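agent> Task received from the user: take the single chain below, predict its 3D structure, and emit structure tokens. No templates, no multimer pairing.
agent> Plan: (1) validate residues, (2) run structure prediction, (3) serialize to tokens, (4) report one or two observations.
agent> Step 1 OK, no nonstandard residues flagged.
tool_call: predict_structure(input=
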Amino acid sequence: MLLRPTNEGLLAIGQASHAWISGQLARVWGNAEFGAVVPREEVCLAAEQHDVGMAEWDLRPALDDETGRPRDFMHLPVATHLGLWRAAPHKLLTQSTYAALLCSMHGSALQRFRDLDALPPADADDVRAFLGEQRELQERLQAALGRDEEEIDRNQRLIWTWDALSLALCLDWAPYTQRDVPTAGGGATELRLTDDDLGGGCALDPWPFVTDTVTVHAEGRLLDAHEYPDEPSLHAALEAAPVRRLTFSLRPRR
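)
tool_result: status=success, residues=254
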């Protein structure tokens, strides 16, 4: 779950809704400088579904006892986070082997960011076990697909890029720079997201999309209180919370 403070209250954005933005970005990605998305449907599906493992969790999230808010995605216990990511690629296997492979690779990339030396030994061992399990799964899926490894690596980096841009929009990170973004011909570049002071919305440089402007949206549930005493109170508030639509407009930097 993502948490975005607003003038009305606290907007709780489900991981699957944030991932929906990733899919929207994927479907308009790929001008001459950045190259086409191939295979298009499978990669767009993976972008939109990469957080599928968290969809049910976000319906009844854990309470963060320190804040009285839902526990957001950056503060999940290691064991909980790994459990959700272990389940994620298997949820995609009945849709697309390729999308399941990219989902597994994305989860592995997230866990490799952890400083294992700073974790309790049991958590560090669990992360290592997770990475080993996912490596075996990825090897099996890649063998079944018979696709080029460079293609798959490029697409995993694209999923990472769209995921980061969606987070930057939902959590208002601008100015934000995303590095190692694949371009046409095997290169890579940086994308710089800034506020577009002239026209509202955000500006992106360089421009990677096939259209002149891009508008994406997600949904969140508006909580009217910032602190809840227990999980039943939080869950009841989420069930009753009004839905709010978040819309983001992107333009080339002027």
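agent> Step 4: summary for the user.
The chain has one domain: 2-252.
agent> Done.
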